[in-house]
Amino acid sequence: MTIRRTNRNNQKKWLQANRTLKILDLGCSVNSYWTEANHFADIEDHTEYFKNLNLNYTCIKPDEKLPFKDKEFDYVILSHVLEHVNDPFMLRAEIERVGKAGYIELPTKLCDNIIFVPKNDALGHKWWFEFDDDKQEMVFEKKVEALESFLSVGSVWKLSKIFDDSFTIQLYWENSMNLSKKSPYLIDEKITFSSLVKKYYSKKIRVFISVIKNILK
């Protein structure tokens, strides 16, 4: 049983060097699928899109068992999917059933708080995840709004080139994954964007006044 931190780029390089593996990109979409995979699956019907690329595609149903055989895949990619599902334990079990190893990518709590998403999005993020390095375990809890969102997904993708380790959790697993759930944080008051702006300019003004005072001495 292995689950540990890894690096997305290193995993991609390894897959590129092992083209004979049967690789599933689960929850692939048509915008961010891994070209290293040779089988793709999502809850949206992208059959024609992948057919035109001469790639295998399976349309799956949410909250149901995956339509694949036991240990059918050598490697399963699960990038920004687990935080969306209703039952992470069920999907974890299904991934372990159909795959031998794989990669999981998740947003950090910080990233999940600063990205602006539509309200009441049924397919939005339901859970916060973190990784316990001592227990080698993924831990999830119900997502709460601790900070008013103020960045678009596109902006975060640009920033992630610099702050990737602050915005994403990147994990490699083999044979099975440790996963546990804990009680959600209790937030007394959500931090608003306006309050952050006020504090920012208040600090700027104090620094400016301090500089002026030093000049006039």
Number of strands: 10
- State the order of secondary-structure elements, H for helix, E for strand: EHEEHEEHEHEEHEEH
CATH class: Alpha Beta
* Sheet with the most strands, sense and barrel status: 7 strands, mixed
Terminal residue distance: 67 Å
List the SSEs and their pairings.
Elements: E1 2-5, H1 8-16, E2 23-26, E3 39-42, H2 47-52, E4 56-59, E5 75-79, H3 88-98, E6 101-107, H4 109-114, E7 127-132, E8 137-142, H5 153-167, E9 168-174, E10 179-181, H6 193-216
Parallel strand pairs: 2-3, 2-5, 3-4, 5-6, 8-10
Antiparallel strand pairs: 1-9, 6-9, 7-8
Summarize this, please?
This protein is of the alpha/beta class and 217 residues long.
What does this structure look like?
With 217 residues, this protein is an alpha/beta fold. It has a single domain, classed as Rossmann fold. Helices cover 33% and strands 23% of the residues. It contains 6 helices and 10 strands, in the order βαββαββαβαββαββα. A 7-stranded mixed β-sheet has the order 1-9-6-5-2-3-4. Strands 7-8-10 form a 3-stranded mixed β-sheet, with no helix packed on it. The mean pLDDT is 88.
List keywords for this structure.
10 strands, elongated, 6 helices, 217 residues, alpha/beta, Rossmann fold, 33% helix, three-stranded mixed β-sheet, seven-stranded mixed β-sheet
